[in-house]
Amino acid sequence: MDLKRIPKLKHTDSTNFFLLAGPCAIEGEEMALKIAERIVKITDKLEIPFVFKGSFKKANRSRIDSFTGIGDEKALKILKKVSDTFDLPTVTDIHQESDAALAAAYVDVLQIPAFLVRQTDLLVAAAETGKVVNLKKGQFMSPESMQHAAQKIKDSGNDKVMITDRGTMFGYQDLVVDFRGIPTMRRFASTVLDVTHSLQQPNQSSGVTGGRPEMIETIARAGIVNNVDGLFIETHFNPREAKSDAANMLDLELLEGLLTRLVSIRKTINQF
């Protein structure tokens, strides 16, 4: 997919990967603006095309007392304010057909969560908004099978689709990234590597998902070397206090160093 089809996206003529980044969930206006401002400064400096990510609600939770959001329209209005304040595109997850039109009024990219990527009615509803659709690869799906999910979007009259790999289930409580899947999925659509969710350790007995954030750079470097089109990184200025995915988010203070090194790697890879 031509990146220039994403509204407000900057630096599309650079040879860098593009970036979907932000907090796991919108916890409030101040935190969203603070995180967005920092990422904008970094990505402008490095000329990385940047889409701000934030979930307006969290429907897939381990326990009933887990944080689910601050209110749908309240969170979506914050995403719109981030977009207007920094003149950048935004992406958020949708979980049911009625979410598609609601979220499309506020954001530029609709994301289908991995557990829901086979739900035909949801994919069709997203496609029919005319927005760019980001399909998270199901943890239970092969890279080859994602061609069918992407085709559902295209068959619904929308060719603005991309695929994001977020790891594959390995036993009950771990995920692995099979880098053989990147060239496979790039045949079907632009492909993104989610380097934070790929390091989750789900299904913990505590009911709180674990993670291995110390491996973020390892996974990200491997993705860049293998020509992934974009990276997906959840980041927070205080990951331990984040209300969702605290165990696997990247500390915002580490983001600039990581992206600087990844840009250097991409420049080297581009020579080949």
Automatic annotation (TrEMBL):
Pfam families to which the protein is assigned, alphabetical: DAHP_synth_1
Pathway(s) of this molecule: Bacterial outer membrane biogenesis; lipopolysaccharide biosynthesis; Carbohydrate biosynthesis; 3-deoxy-D-manno-octulosonate biosynthesis; 3-deoxy-D-manno-octulosonate from D-ribulose 5-phosphate: step 2/3
Gene Ontology molecular function terms on file: 3-deoxy-8-phosphooctulonate synthase activity
Keyword Cytoplasm: yes
Location within or outside the cell: Cytoplasm
Domain DAHP synthetase I/KDSA as annotated: residue spans: 13-263
Gene3D superfamilies xrefs: Aldolase class I (3.20.20.70)
Main location: cytoplasm
Assigned EC number: 2.5.1.55
GO BP annotation list: lipopolysaccharide biosynthetic process
Sorted UniProt keywords: Cytoplasm, Transferase
SUPFAM superfamilies: Aldolase
Protein family: Belongs to the KdsA family.
Protein name: 3-deoxy-8-phosphooctulonate synthase
Species classification: Bacteria, Pseudomonadati, Bacteroidota, Flavobacteriia, Flavobacteriales
